[in-house]
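Researcher: I'm comparing several assemblies side by side, and this is the next one on my list. It has 551 residues spread over two chains. Same procedure as the others: predict the full complex and return the structure.
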Amino acid sequence: MGKFKVHQDLRGFLKTLEEEGQLVHITDEVLPEPDIGSAGRAASRMTNGPAVQFDNIKGYGPGYSVVTNVHGSWANHALMMGMPKTATTKEQFEELNRRWDLFPVAPNIVSRDEAPCKENVVEGDDVNLFDLLPLYRINEQDGGFFIGKPATVTADPRDPGNFNKVNVGTYRIQVKGKNRIGMQCLAMHDIAVQLREAEKKNEKLPFAIALGNAPLVTFMASTPIAFDQNEYEFVGALQDGVPADIVKADTSEHLYVPAGSEVILEGYIDPRVRTCEGPFGEFPGSYSGCRSQTEGVITHITYRTNPIFENIYLGMPWTEIDFLMALNTSVPIYKQLHDEGFPEVVAVNAMYTHGFTEIISLKPRYGGHATGAAFKLLSTPHAMPYCHNVILVDDFVDPFDLNQVVWALSTRVRPDKDVKVIQNCAGMPLNPSEEVPGMTAKLIIDATTPVDPEPLKRSVELLRDPAKTAEYAKIIADLQAAL
Amino acid sequence: MKCPRCEFDQISTIAKSPQAGVWEVYQCDQCFYSWRSTEDPKVADVFKLTKEQIDNLQVIPPVPPLEV
């Protein structure tokens, strides 16, 4: 503990980003549309692009600001973990794996007086989201103004006092009035399980929505973990054992929110109500259509003085969301394979469009073993609906290096034997390739070297690096650096 | 004023700029499309909606049967 810098709020992380040259401020006056979305697009396309903070938004004036692209580069992702901003993707994957095993780390529950998120309160008729947050349209064809980076906290109505079943998740929000919001609760998500129980009894589902959070809170809110695993206990693990600071929500006995968040929206989902929501430019790089989705009512807001509104840009990958959902999708799936029956798995790359395509690196023990790992993957909670395409590569292939993966596809795949398609499986409705949203086929490509008893009729001897390759890599790099 | 998406003619003003008189935000009472007065909303044909389409949108998540 103590080796890595820990951020308990967004403000502290923005300070670190600024010190490291990974945050820029736009101080000229701008209209919310199209400037903020455009900046999010541009920054996430740059190599190691910075967070971008707008400090002068037309119609809002002093004291209001918006920040976007906070997680939108590998440098920012590394700084979120307290690592050097030059840490590679593989190094960050391995460090996340190490910290993952520290779970659970119980959170630190602070008093209301100690929680910065409680500095100010508005409630009842005074609630007005537009007065508090510089809301804006992210992409041109979005149906309204969306909040794309919330950490929404809900409890299980069947067992509301069970902290392990308190869920912290990211579900997109369309603002539909000064105190009304649309929320997307897809059937495969934990919140939909909870909502179903409430709606069976025509009961409201209370929520507390945290905006502008410590970076690892946002990271965990978008990480697929088990229904009865608590996100805050993972935040403590990923903070290398430093507990997350949380505080009880004002209007719900069982909900806890991050103490340092910029804004907390408290209220409830209106039971059995669905209204038109969308479209919204989504992570697959296309707009989701309009659907009839749930509505929530905000009854009570607490916020820090001069709150910073943190939002995300989503567009044609890669954008900020691809960085945010890269390793937090890969690590839990790796754990579910490696720790639950497939210790031969050495790494999982589920970084592409939130795991629509996943690459497993493993050392198969017998013929067909690799295909078995694919079946296991396709039965894990997240991959079962999300993953369409599975690529299996040998243990010596780095799944994060697409040059190596394509080498394996090119030199190991026998199309007549190694390509399998399984019809009529669970899908993810936001994937535009699904003819019926929510249903898909699964593709498995085995690009591993055949293992007995599968016949391997031709001898394949891999090339090895010449003996002094590592030594020369350093010599050449030093010479180049001295130029 | 009509909704740029579904042409419904009942539009609510859901927000006014905190600095008075800079902009307003409008929302359609039927399809919930919203826009700021400083925008010139151009809804692509593929995203335009009729009343019939709005009434028959896919419901997410499905509403469960009531348990009494």
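Model: For your comparison table: Chain B touches chain A through 39 residues (CB under 8 Å).
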